[in-house]
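Why run this: before we spend reagent on co-expression, it is cheaper to look at a predicted model of the complex and decide which construct boundaries make sense. The entries below are exactly what would go into the expression plan.
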Amino acid sequence: MNELLAILEDQPFFADMEPEHRRLLAACAAKNGYPAGTRLMRDHEPAETFWLIREGQVALESPLREGCVTFQTLGPGDILGWSWLLPPYRASYDARALTDLHTLRFDAGVLREHMEADPAFGYMLMKHFSALIVQRLQAARLQALDIYSHGGPGHGT
Amino acid sequence: MAPETLQPRADSALPEQAMAPQPWRIHSVRPDVASNEVFSWTLYPEPGVEPGPPPAPGQFNMLYLFGVGEVPISVSAITADGGIVHTTRAVGSVTRTMQDLGPGAVVGLRGPFGTAWPVEQARGRDLVLVAGGIGLAPLRPVIHAALERRDDFGHVVVCYGARSPGDMIFRDELEAWGARDDLDLRITVDRGTAAWRGDVGVVTQLIDRGGFDRRNTLAMVCGPEVMMRFAASSLERRGLKPEDIFVSMERNMRCAVGFCGHCQIGAHFVCRDGPVFPYPVMEPAFRIREL
Amino acid sequence: MEVITPQAVDTLIRLLASDGYEVVGPTRRDGAIVYDRVHGLDDLPAGWTDEHAPGHYRLRERDDAALFGYVVGPHSWKKYLFPPQETLFRLTRQADGSFTTEPGESDAPPRAFIGMRSCELAAIGVQDRVFLGQAVQDRGYAARRRDVFMVAAHCAEPGGTCFCASMDTGPRARGGFDLALTEVIDATQHFLVAEAGSDAGRAMLDRLKPRPATDAEQAAAERVWAEAPEKMGRQMPADAREVLNRAFEHPHWEETAERCLSCSNCTLVCPTCFCSQVEEVPDLEGQRTERVRRWDSCFNQEHSHLVGGAHRDSVAARYRQWITHKLATWHDQFGTSGCVGCGRCITWCPVGIDITEEVTAVRRDPEGRA
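The model came back. Tokens follow.
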């Protein structure tokens, strides 16, 4: 437990939370690992978990008929999974370990109950995940803009 | 108050050569991407040409093609023996003509011009470089300087975003930097390929992974404006003070000395007061449309 | 103070010419008072004046024979110091693929400017800061500027679009001239009060054989100076810089853009606008080429060219750039306003956009709510 708390304190996503809230999160977390190639999430399957990636790299993929397209990768310090927050609590993409992973795995089902029971905690966690989702949304927009197709600094005609 | 009239001075602070293209010869040409859309020239002055001071990281030269025209191109490296490396993307009429030139051709050069990256100010601190696309070129001299005097800096983090693996420039050097344990190179592409094993996503997510001391870091950002804006937000979110973030701007620089008026952003001439600016100075340019 | 006769102005022109100056001054042509070569008194627009209003300029005969009884025409002295077209360099290809660069010749003779207005002297001070006051001096400008003999004519006839009094640049010239004249004319008398502003001006004035002014003549000149500011048709708010620095996103610019034709007339007649572009002009054999500088304007779309399109694509952004640069950011760049209050941009705007009214409109409604 103390070890998990220490890990959370070191991570930007958790660092600014109340110690009490961090303890609650640590109580729902467990250290674990996955070998490369593991599929941690599958599009449309129930989402009852999220992960803090401590080591390794994860690809977020959209399954297409021609195969999977990676639209983003996550690495150390990143949070994987937010579909557990909102109904219908189903994943909206695949997540696949590109390397061996060390993670903290959070039981989101239990956390949801805590959030309902303790609105202060619920609001705090919702705020943190909203910021994360906004960040991902902005990143997706930037990607869609294809920003590198026009010139660049110091380059005229 | 009516400004008093002035008298011409006997000397300019910059020599007459600041305005006249001087002949420099292309020693070698290197395609930086497979399509040769981005290429690097190593240039040496022709006999009799008095080169200007060595360009500082972030400065640019005006490159001139006889009978064609002139463009501002940032310096992407200098060689030990006085050569200057310019990396260009063929996107306009002048740069497309440049693409066809080979070793031995003579081009015009005047400069260096503009402000430099504040490398000295980063001494004793962590250094975060964020480059997008060809924006890696103006930052490469900073990486060279940091590696040359590696002990002067704390963590050195280089975040590089490219459109796709095939659009990445300086591939050999990226590989060499990636192999070092005293440089934290992070690369991401907007669109991966089947063979791509690295990160996918925008360059800002590389910043979000931290790995630098928020209280003692200097950041330099170069890339498309929208990318710089998002990168600056990410850096601020990581705890950097706005004044510790520097950006390099692009505008229509023609004369390079504040005469022609084309490159103004508000009160600033990008050629004279930039291209490298502290982020707070350029913040309105990111916010106000068509400034 | 000293007095010279109108005929002495003829002597002045001829003496300057015999001293080797190309003498340029006001003359009547194509329905306007323009600046061109003058050879004697007959070339000056004696007995003519000009009416100014937004988008309106007309010559009108005076009921006297005043030499300098007009406001200002579309030309300014800018065209001599910073010509509309100028070859900066001539380059020649060498056999080994290299090239040589020679400066474009500055063949301009020393010039004498006759009849400069106070606002125009101020405008030269403004352009001096651009072309002489930065790290690099403009070679051609410095060469032409060095040799100018300046004869000011204190303005007695500010027009309907003038506002130099509110810019503190006139109508009486306070310095920068070699010689300054105040023309006094009424039913009974016609003379000019002359002041020297330099050693060269003093020497020239002596050659014109002036006589000391009487008390009455001096009083008459002082009356001209005192009355001139009252004739000014317009006024610039004193806080124009602050107003514009707060108005980058003011909706008013969209309204102005509906009228603005983006024709660049205002920048062409402006005595301080300095934007230019350099074109490559090669010969047919490809052995010689020239770098030719021409006036440009921030109203041209190409002015803000970037890969992917013009940065200031909208007319609103281009108008805002012009007015904000002129009245606000110019201070940051060069320590002075870029506007001298001559009113040309108002007179020569085909749709009569009024720079003073633009500032007033934004000032009246800082939040853009109206």
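Chain B has a mean pLDDT of 94. The radius of gyration of chain B is 19 Å. Bring this page to Monday's planning discussion.
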